[in-house]
Design brief:
278 residues; alpha+beta; Fructose-1,6-Bisphosphatase, Chain A, domain 1; D-Maltodextrin-Binding Protein, domain 2; 2 domains; 7-stranded mixed sheet; 27% helix; 27% strand
Length: 278
């Protein structure tokens, strides 16, 4: 990958994610932050804004030619950004509610989008000092104090293999989640907060599937999608159509599912009825 122009961009994104994550962790450890409520009732903190400031400063300095879309910035309407062939897509803290609740399940997300598809993904989990990253066509990787390795989704022969590991949000009802999973005889659930961490756990084979019902933005899936796909999985909307990036005025995602092993017939496992909620 060293000769690929994306290699240097990946290194820049990794540096930005780690730097922001280190500062966020110091704020988290000190407890010295202020929480606010956005217009859509979702939480945001002074740590989100500080992480956003750090990432923007690094990306704008190192790649001034590449525009940036961030959850914590004014991104303008589609007319302003529709001609972007390449841009950074960032979520300074994915899992802000978990940051506030002090569960440790939060991460910094940075993706590079080209021609409306994620081609680089970097997710840094500060409490675990763990970096997940991927570049399209080159695989997905995990780096931590304990290990540095390429990661893959777990391969299994369903339904012959009975146990399916289902990642769920800490505040979701397990019963409601399972009502959308048909014919799974034996399963285990893995509660986690951040959407991106659940995706990374699927990418490294610690979980097999995750359904997200509720409001998210394109920045919640950009980095995850690249990592999961390079690990052998998929992220799609709940009706199994592809997610889109920078193609609508709204940057809000549809409800989506993160899927492991592509050989599994997930459409016969994951059931979702429009108008329902979890």
């Amino acid at each position: 990958m060293a000769d690929d122009p994306r290699h240097s961009l990946l290194e820049i994104a990794k540096k930005a994610a780690i730097k922001a994550g280190e500062v966020v962790l110091s704020i988290y450890d000190s407890g010295d932050f202020t929480a606010y409520e956005k217009a859509d009732d979702s939480p945001v903190t002074s740590a989100d804004y500080k992480a956003n400031e750090i990432i923007l400063e690094i990306l704008q300095r190192e790649t001034p030619h590449i525009p940036i879309m961030s959850e914590e910035s004014n991104n303008g309407d589609l007319n302003h950004r529709k001609d972007w062939q390449q841009y950074w897509l960032i979520d300074p803290i994915d899992g802000t509610q978990e940051f506030i609740a002090r569960s440790g399940d939060f991460a910094v997300n940075i993706a590079l989008i080209e021609n409306n598809q994620p081609v680089l993904g970097v997710i840094y989990w500060p409490p675990g000092e763990t970096l997940y990253y991927a570049s399209k066509g080159y695989g997905a990787f995990k780096s931590s104090p304990l290990e540095n390795k390429q990661i893959h989704v777990r391969q299994f022969d369903y339904p012959q293999e009975d146990v399916v590991m289902i990642a769920i949000s800490r505040r979701q009802s397990r019963e409601k989640v399972m009502s959308r999973m048909s014919d799974i005889r034996t399963y285990q659930t893995l509660p986690l907060g951040s959407c991106s961490l659940k995706a990374c756990f699927i990418a490294e084979g610690k979980a097999d599937v995750f359904m997200r019902i509720g409001v998210t933005g394109e920045w919640d899936t950009g980095a995850s999608q690249c990592i999961v796909e390079e690990a052998g999985g998929n992220i799609v909307s709940v009706d199994f159509t592809p997610l889109t990036y920078n193609q609508r005025d709204s940057t809000e995602n549809p409800n989506f599912v993160v899927l492991g092993d592509r050989q599994v017939d997930w459409q016969n496992i994951v059931k979702y009825e429009l108008g329902t909620d979890i």
